[in-house]
Amino acid sequence: MAIKHLVAGVALAAFAGLGGYVLWGESAQPAPSSQFVLLDGSSTTTQQLRGKVTLVNFWATSCVTCVAEMPEVIATYNKYKDQGYDTLAVAMQYDPPSYVVNFAQSRQLPFKVALDNTGQIAKAWGDVKLTPTTYIVNKRGDIVKTYIGQPNFEELHQLIEKLLAEA
Predict the structure, then answer these.
(1) Helices (DSSP H) in 50-151: which residue ranges?
(2) For this UniProt entry, which segments traverse the membrane (predicted)?
(3) Which of 17, 26, 85, 96 reaches 20 to 30 Å from 11, CA-CA?
(4) Percent helix / strand / coil, the chain, rounded to 5
(5) Residue 26 has what pLDDT?
(6) Number of CB atoms found within 10 A of residue 134's CB
(7) Is the separation of the CB atoms in 36 and 119 below 8 Å?
(8) Among the residues of the chain, which ranges form H helices?
(9) Which residues, 6 or more positions from 130, have their beta carbon under 8 angstroms from its beta carbon?
(10) Are residues 20 and 66 in the same domain?
């Protein structure tokens, strides 16, 4: 009987610890310091994102879900861009630059598109391997939400509106 209680206690403690991890894992953490080289040859940094709510999307032209969600990413950008919102699409290291340029031009992407030629940006942002992976960064430069796979855009819009309303 004592062993059952011990096992139950250990299981409960482990579950509580995991619950705490999940809860703490959703708290804001500073976005990694990164320099992004954009398709036009210019660059931007994580520090330059401050002051705006920013969606940072790791994607690839070969990713079916990435391609499928792009119209919603564009619509979200267009809906909030005049309210202090920005989008930065980061193409994965394995994505040929010519494919990224062609995609950005043919789809008329209205936001910044960066190439991660070395894979260092994806590594710095949590060793991103799965696409799409999307981060929502608040005005202070903290990551407040991470989506792996296509976000629920209704939920995403509510979060963006909440973050835009913050001082």
Answers:
(1) 64-80, 97-106, 120-124
(2) none
(3) 26
(4) 45, 25, 30
(5) 53
(6) 23
(7) no
(8) 2-25, 46-49, 64-80, 97-106, 120-124, 153-165
(9) 148, 149
(10) no
Q: What is the mean pLDDT of the chain?
A: 88
Check which CATH number belongs to the domain holding 158 and give it.
Answer: 3.40.30.10
Phi and psi at residue 74, to the nearest 5°:
-65, -45
Structure tokens at 167: 């001082």
The reply to whether 149 and 122 lie within a common domain is yes
**% pLDDT > 70, the chain:** 84
Q: How far apart are CA 141 and CA 114, in angstroms?
A: 18
Q: Are 51 and 101 in the same domain?
A: yes
Phi-psi map region of 154: left, alpha, beta (phi>0 left; psi -120 to 50 alpha): alpha
**Cα distances (Å, whole numbers) of residue 94 to 1, 45, 165:** 56, 22, 37
Residues 78 and 14 in one domain: no
State the sign of the Cα–Cα–Cα–Cα dihedral 149, 153, 158, 162.
Answer: positive
Please give the single-letter amino acid code of residue 148.
I
10 — pLDDT class (breaks 50, 70, 90)? very low
